[in-house]
Amino acid sequence: MTGTAPRHPKYPHLLQPLQVAGMTMPNRSIMGSMHMGLEEKKGGFSKLARFYAERAEGGAGLIVTGGISPNRAGKLAPHGATLMRSSQAAQHREVTDAVHASGGRIALQILHGGRYSYHPFCVAPSKGKAPISKFSPWVLSGRGVERTIRAYVRCALLAREAGYDGVEVMGSEGYLINQFLVRRTNHRTDEWGGAFQNRVRFPEEIVARIREACGPDFAIMYRLSMLDLVEEGNGWGEVVEQAQVIEAAGADIINTGIGWHEARIPTIAAMVPRAGFAWVTKKLMGQVGLPLVTTNRINMPEVAEQVLADGCADLVSMARPWLADGDIIAKAVEGREAEINTCIACNQACLDRTFKGKVAGCVVNPRAGRETEFAKESDSKLEGRYAVVGGGPAGMSTALELAKRGAEVDLFEAREGLGGQFLLARQIPGKEEFAETLRYYQHELDRFGVKVYLETRFDVDRFTAAKASDQPYAAVAWCAGVRPRIPNIPGADLPHAVPYDAVLRGEVEVGKRVAMIGAGGIGFDVADFLSHAHGEETIEGFRKSWGIDGDLETDGGLEAPDRPSPERELYLLQRKEGKPGKGLGKTTGWIHRLTLRFRGVKSIPGVTYKAIEPTGLRIEVGGKEQFLEVDSVVFCSGQLSNNEPVGALKSAGADVKVIGGAKEAYGIDAERAIREGFEWARSL
Ligand code: NAP
Ligand code: SF4
Predict the structure, then answer these.
(1) Same structural domain, 392 and 534
(2) Are residues 566 and 452 part of one domain?
(3) Does residue 12 sit within a domain?
């Protein structure tokens, strides 16, 4: 299992080679499976080929593709990708050839959705709709089970024909195989149900027959649900037994799966502590002879190294971190960690888009999934001097891209530090990773020679002075961001009525009873900030507050949550009728809503604001007036663009480009701000 290459001084475990079936992995990093949404798009294979080839060049030990279904019933969506015919395998050649030409290795993930397949022809071991689907599955007959196993084998053979180095058999996250494994979804009375030996037979047959059909050199990784996090999930004894059965059936590696998609416990979102589930894989170490892979919220090389050094696993799988930075391992090898663009686990441009049937991207890396549209570095040089106004996400992204193209860039920030909204976001529990994005930009702006002027407002005088000099500005990128909207409510000027940014910056203290006016993303963030109990950010604290059994003695790994009583009385208000937080992220909104519910935050929709008074807030709901006795009122009521000087600059002859929140405050977020800056700087 252990290679003979000399050990890297800083990453002795992570950068250790490993021989698996017919391939030699140069290190212990796996780029985990992510459905990019390109799989089904016209011309998508060429885009995927470039996307994966860059990650192979960037040091991925092994790449795993997004899930591909072995038959029609298993498709995740009506137009989901399948691999059932040689003509389809031929299309995959473009991907495998590109990865191999870049010195990489790639495995195809075989994923059958079972009752998670979002179409009316979905199948399952037994009756019963998934709580996250509207489709009732057809129950597989005994012959149907046999046909499905044969489809897995056919898919693996076609993957080999397409040039893949192996397959990952997806046995976790609540998909078909997982549905066979647990009592929750398997009520069969034939040889595929009942005792665990029967329930495990489905993956056992799949792995054994793939091995037999594809031969010893073809790698088989099996993703095993080590912690189902649902009621009537497997107990730890069944997890160990499954691993041993899978080893005996001929798999080469076992990967870790944590939580079903229907589980109501976060497993990869930002509030999960880094490497927050590596302890589960560790428990399986030594129970089988195969190398084990651990995963979930491992987002930097030093985290990966620590997990391996602690004996939690033999390999690590990172998925989203490879979207954020396709060179993550190459940068570690070369000691350039400060240049790593770190995944902040927001899910916003990757999973949230995937679940809406869109092509995945990345908030912090606007090139992700668009590698054929934008070269890695622009080869056309940009001359001249540019002013970028505002050191938030839009300004930093614009300035960096201009500087990378060779322009001389002056970046002006009115506050004492760069970061803008990032400085606020990183105060929110679970959003601490924004500090990494800030670190990345600060380092890169410095590396590419951007001149940063802090506590400096850019104005017409400065522009005019430059214009009169021998170094005029070719253009001004106006990225001055947003400021909180203060609604027109009587009493809004009272001292205990404050904007959200002042609260997050620690400029004002709020009392024990607080009303938040506005229940959008920021209202939820402020409520989280004000109700967070110290300690929940540790792995132990996270487990306790979400009810995860750290001893793994219960089925599915669930136990009663242990949450501290809330210290504040909070009200989250909005004028709209309907559920607050509806517009939050598709894959994370439920976590925020649940968190605030656990903490006793009272949501009130359909509010008319009457007045802010010295002792509270007067509102009307459903035609009835109410008085909320609160010590503080926090405005989370949207934002306004900071763009006042733009007209004067234009009149003075400046070529001004307005970017990000300064252009359009409504719905502004880091994704749009960073992307707009990047795209404009590339368009020049
Ligand atoms: P938002 O989501 O548009 O929410 C603004 C809130 O203020 C709404 O609840 C709105 O509800 C209320 N409001 C608007 N005008 C008002 C007025 N004149 N008087 C009283 N209430 C008013 O915007 P945001 O919360 O400022 O967030 C900005 C952006 O940041 C979002 O678009 C989001 O993309 C991003 N963000 C997301 C998250 C997240 O998903 N976790 C977190 C932070 C920020 P009513 O009009 O019904 O009263
Ligand atoms: Fe990570 Fe967010 Fe990018 Fe997804 S969008 S890869 S979670 S930084």
Answers:
(1) no
(2) no
(3) no
Whether residue 368 is contained in a domain is answered as no
**SS3 (DSSP) at 368:** coil
The domain that holds 550 is classified in CATH as 3.50.50.60
In a domain, 7, yes or no: no
Q: What is the mean pLDDT of each run of 10 residues along the chain (684 residues)?
A: 71 97 96 93 94 98 98 95 97 97 98 97 97 96 98 98 98 98 98 98 98 98 98 97 98 98 95 97 98 98 98 98 98 97 97 92 97 92 96 98 97 96 93 96 98 97 96 97 96 97 96 97 96 88 95 95 91 95 92 94 97 97 96 97 96 97 94 98 96
Residue in 356, 363, 439, 672 to alter for ligand 2 test, most ligand atoms within 8 A of Cβ? 363
Q: Does 525 contact ligand 1 (Cβ within 6 A)? A: yes
- Asked if 465 and 551 sit in the same domain, the reply is no
362 CB within 6 A, ligand 2: yes
In the numeric block, which tokens belong to residue 116? 């998670």
Q: Best mutation site among 322, 350, 433 for ligand 2, i.e. most ligand atoms within 8 A of its Cβ?
A: 350
CATH assignment at residue 464: 3.40.50.720
Among 175, 222, 440, 609, the active-site one is 175
**32's tokens:** 């985990």
85 and 184 in a single domain? The answer is yes
How far apart (Å, rounded) are the C-alpha atoms in residues 270 and 340?
18
Give the Å distance between the CA of 492 and the centre of ligand 1. Answer: 18
Tell me the β-bridge partners of 516: 572, 634
Q: Using CA atoms, how far apart are residues 168 and 331, in angstroms rounded to an integer?
A: 27
How many whole angstroms from its chain centre is CA 517?
Answer: 29
Domain that residue 494 falls in: 486-637
